[in-house]
Prior knowledge:
The structure holds 2 protein chains of 2 kinds.
Chain A: E1 3-11, H1 14-29, E2 33-39, H2 45-54, E3 62-68, H3 73-79, E4 85-89, H4 102-108, E5 119-123, E6 140-146, H5 153-156, H6 158-163, E7 166-170, H7 182-192, E8 197-200, H8 209-221
Parallel strand pairs in A: 2-5, 2-6, 3-4, 3-5, 6-7, 7-8
Helix pairs in contact in A: 1-4
Chain B: H1 3-18, E1 23-31, H2 38-48, E2 58-64, E3 67-70, E4 78-79, E5 95-99, E6 103-111
Parallel strand pairs in B: 1-2
Antiparallel strand pairs in B: 1-6, 3-4, 3-5
Amino acid sequence: MHQTKVRVAEDALDANTTIAHANRADFDRESVSVVNLMSAPGAGKTTLLEAVFRSGLGDVRPGVLEGDVQGSLDADRLSHLHVPVTQLNTDGGFGGECHLDANMVRTALPSLGLEQIDLLIIENVGNLVCPAEFRVGEDTKAMVCSVTEGEDKPLKYPLMFRTCDLVVVNKVDLLPHLDYDLDALLRNIESVNPGVETMLISARTGEGVEAFRNWLVHVAEREGVPA
Amino acid sequence: MHELSLSSAILETALRHADGRKVNTVEITVGALRQVVTSSLEFYFEIVSRDTVCEGARLECNEIEARVKCNDCDAPPWTLDQPIFRCPACGGSDVEVLSGTEFLVESIDVEDKEGVVS
């Protein structure tokens, strides 16, 4: 038996990145800005989006792509707020993929109605690990981390915290009831991703939500500028 | 934890380059900042490669440490053992990553097709 060594020297995620670029080109063609919103399960991504959409985004027309392993519970919550929502389930794969990849997003493109929106928010599957690895064609990545998760999370999931341009710290209304060291969290975020923008909010009470809304509007306005 | 998705990505890349030939070894390079557990990667690779030309192939992992340097002072480059991107010498935050983000398929060893002289 003869054996040959074939030199590959290729990033293992190149195939994903190529499709992400194709998505990006389609978004650009329709002048749609895209946010990849990530978090651990239960951090409050959907509640935050509900809070934002309740009072709208001004002239910006948003759309949402909901990534979930199964079901459409989150999409149902958002669809009441008159925002076009497309559900993308990942359970076709090996027990349900724990993240969205570029190809999954690509399959959803025809149903997104890109020509009718200015800003697409991709609510990724709740997971602090895999979503950080897979680009989907976004302009920017943001994450929600809640104060019920522990101050050490940035040190445990540096890949996620480093890949994001914005870290939204949610559930701050609970701080009086928790033994939580907010300064330690902010210090850990700053150690892992120096200079990253952070916001303290409560999607439940509405505290700080305005800042996130303004951030989204700002992203929509710098449309077509790659991150 | 993300080793399953990553092993699928490695498999896809290897299959594309194998072009139908039986693969015996897949050599990869993984940087420490990718937070990959290589033993877990090997475990999942064995599963996802079943019924493909990569079935039974050995996954050879070269691990690269995370090396960084400070752009604010003259401190010599250092190796990260924790994900803290701040210069221990001057406290500066303009810390440049020199290595540790790699996730590459370097090469594959393939069996030559019968009757083909290489």
